[in-house]
Design a protein that fits this description.
- By secondary structure, the protein is mainly α.
- It is 51% helix and 10% strand.
- Helix 2 packs antiparallel against helix 8, helix 4 crosses helix 5 and helix 6 crosses helix 7.
- Strand 1 and strand 2 form a beta hairpin.
- The protein has two domains: 71 residues, Fe,Mn superoxide dismutase (SOD) domain (Helix Hairpins, Orthogonal Bundle), CATH 1.10.287.990; 99 residues, minor pseudopilin epsh fold (3-Layer(bab) Sandwich).
- The structure holds manganese (II) ion.
- Manganese (II) ion (MN) binds next to helix 2 and helix 8.
C-alpha cells in the first residue's frame, strides 16, 4: 500500500507555469482579459488534459515535457503536450513594455540574427511574414538548428521545432484565441504589437 502511494506520487504531473508578471502587466499589447482566458483557461485545459493522458502510461509518465513532445506518436498526447510546451515558452518570453530586456537583442543574439537573416530588422520582417502567412492555427518559431544556425519555422496546430531536433527560442502563437479579444481578425497588428513585449534576454538564454 505504501509502495503504491509512493509510486503514484512520483508520477509526472505537469503544472501551469508561473507567470513572471501580473495578468494586467502586458497591457495594452495583451489585455488582462486575454491573459485570463489564454493562460488561465486554454493553457490550464491543455495541462489538465495532458495529465489525464499520461496517467498510467508507463513510458510517458517518467518523461519531462520536451521528451513527451518528441516521443508522442501524435494525436491528443502530442497536441496537448505540444501546447503545454509551446505556451510555457510563449508566456515566459514576455515582459511589460519598456522593461529590461525588451526593445532589441544584445550582442550574441543580434550577431546570430545578422548571420542568418541579414539584420535584426530583416529577422523581424521574416518572422512577421511567417506569422501572418500561416494558414489556420499554429505557431511561428525562431529556432536554432544543430549547427547553431537560426531558422524561422512555421508549425501548424501544436507543432514545435523540437521534433526536428531544433531548439525553440521565440514562439508567436497565431491561434485566433491568442489575439481575437484584443485585435479581432487583425493578426498582423497583433504581431506588430508583440515586438514591444519580447524579452530578448529570455530568448537569448534559450540558445545553446
Ligand atoms: Mn494559445
Amino acid at each position: 500500500m505504501l509502495t503504491q502511494r509512493i509510486i503514484t506520487s512520483m508520477a509526472a504531473v505537469f503544472s501551469l507555469p508561473r507567470l513572471p508578471y501580473e495578468a494586467n502587466a502586458l497591457e495594452p499589447v495583451m489585455s488582462k482579459e486575454t491573459i485570463d482566458y489564454h493562460y488561465g483557461k486554454h493553457l490550464q485545459a491543455y495541462v489538465n488534459t495532458l495529465n489525464a493522458l499520461v496517467k498510467g502510461s508507463a513510458g510517458f509518465e517518467k518523461m519531462n515535457l520536451e521528451e513527451v513532445v518528441r516521443h508522442a506518436p501524435g494525436g491528443p498526447l502530442f497536441n496537448n503536450a505540444g501546447q503545454v510546451l509551446n505556451h510555457t515558452l510563449f508566456f515566459e518570453q514576455f515582459r511589460p513594455v519598456g522593461a529590461e530586456g525588451t526593445g532589441k537583442p544584445r550582442a550574441r543574439l543580434e550577431e546570430a540574427m545578422r548571420d542568418s537573416f541579414g539584420s535584426f530588422e530583416q529577422f523581424k520582417e521574416q518572422m512577421a511574414a511567417a506569422s501572418t502567412g500561416l494558414f489556420g492555427s499554429g505557431w511561428a518559431w525562431l529556432a536554432q538548428d544543430g549547427q547553431g544556425e537560426l531558422k524561422i519555422v512555421q508549425c501548424p496546430n501544436a507543432g514545435n521545432p523540437v521534433t526536428e531536433g531544433m531548439v525553440p527560442l521565440l514562439g508567436f502563437d497565431v491561434w485566433e484565441h491568442a489575439y481575437y479579444v484584443d485585435y479581432r481578425n487583425r493578426r498582423a497588428d497583433y504581431i506588430t504589437a508583440l515586438w514591444q513585449i519580447v524579452d530578448w534576454d529570455v530568448v537569448a538564454a534559450r540558445m545553446k
